[in-house]
Amino acid sequence: MIGERLADLRKDANMSQEDLSKKLGISFYTVSSYEREKSTPDDAMKVKIAKLFNVSLDYLLGLIDDERPIGGGKGFPIPDDLPPEAIKEIRDYIHYVKTKHKK
């Protein structure tokens, strides 16, 4: 599950595996191995990944499907009664605004 979540988070952030490897201080091959579920990051690396993408470890581990941000409540609350398409649209827009203001 971690591999799938990691790949999704990386792609949502418009990062290549090489970009991610540089941010995490590991090799490109290690990122690829994580994403293909050939190896599993140690606990310290899991925390580093969760912090990088601002998601909870529960989300990264596949225990929950809500990308709750780290810090309990610092994130923007998204109502539970929205359809999945609407939630994705909101997250895409938030990503767009974050990217726009990084420049």
Would you mind describing this structure in some detail?
The structure is a single chain. This protein is mainly alpha-helical and 103 residues long. It has a single domain (2-102), classed as 434 Repressor (Amino-terminal Domain) (Orthogonal Bundle). 59% of the residues lie in helices and 0% in strands. The chain contains six helices and no strands. The chain has helices at 2-12, 17-24, 28-35, 43-53, 57-60, 84-102. It is globular, with a radius of gyration of 14 Å. The model has no long low-confidence stretch (mean pLDDT 85).
Can you describe this structure in just a few lines?
The protein has 103 residues and is mainly alpha-helical.
Bin the helical content: 55-70%
How many beta strands in the DSSP annotation? 0
Number of distinct helices: 6
| Annotated CATH topology | 434 Repressor (Amino-terminal Domain)
Radius of gyration: 14 Å
Give the biggest sheet.
none
Q: In total, how many domains does the architecture comprise? A: 1
Fourth-tier CATH superfamily name? lambda repressor-like DNA-binding domains
Shape: globular
Amount of beta strand: under 5%
- Distance from N terminus to C terminus (CA atoms, Å) equals 33 Å
CATH level-1 class: Mainly Alpha
Class per helix and strand makeup: mainly alpha
Spans of 5+ residues with little confidence (pLDDT < 50)?
none
CATH architecture: Orthogonal Bundle
Mean pLDDT: 85
One letter per element, helices H and strands E, the order comes to HHHHHH
Structure characteristics:
103 residues, mainly alpha, 434 Repressor (Amino-terminal Domain), 6 helices, 59% helix
